[in-house]
Amino acid sequence: MRLRLHRLVGAVLSLLSLVLMLAAPAVAADDVSVVPGSPSTSTTSVQVRTYRIFQDVDPGFWGEKDIVKMKLKGAVGGLPGDKYEPDAKVNREQAVVMLVRVMGWEPQAAGKKFPPGFANPGAVSSWAKEPVALAIEKGIVSGRDLTAFRPTEPALRWEIAVFVGRALQLEATAGSLAGVGYADAGKIPPEALGYVAALKEKGIMQGDDKNNFNPGSEVTRAEMAAILSRVDGVVGALREREIRGTFRSLPNAGREIQLLLADGTLNSWPLAERFWVYRQKNEVSITSLKAGEPVLALTDGQNKVGLVEVIAAADLPSPPPQPDKVWQGTIVGVSGAGSGAVTLAADSGQYTWPLAAGAVIMLDGRTASRGDLVAGQAAKITVREEQAIRVEATSTTAQVQGILAGIDFGPPESITLTTAAGAKSYQVAATAVIRRNGQSVSLREIRTGDQVGLKLRNDRVEELTATPVIQELEGRVVALQLAATSTITVAGGDGKEKTLPVGNAVEIRRDGQRIELREINRGDWVTLRAEGEAVTRIDVQPWERQDYLVGRVKNINRQARVIVVDPVAGLTGYSTVYLESSGEIRRFGSTVALSDVEEDDEVIVVGRVENGVFVGELVVVIGSRAE
Question: Per the CB 3.0–4.6 Å rule, which of 89, 346, 561, 593 could disulfide with 329?
Answer without folding.
Answer: 346
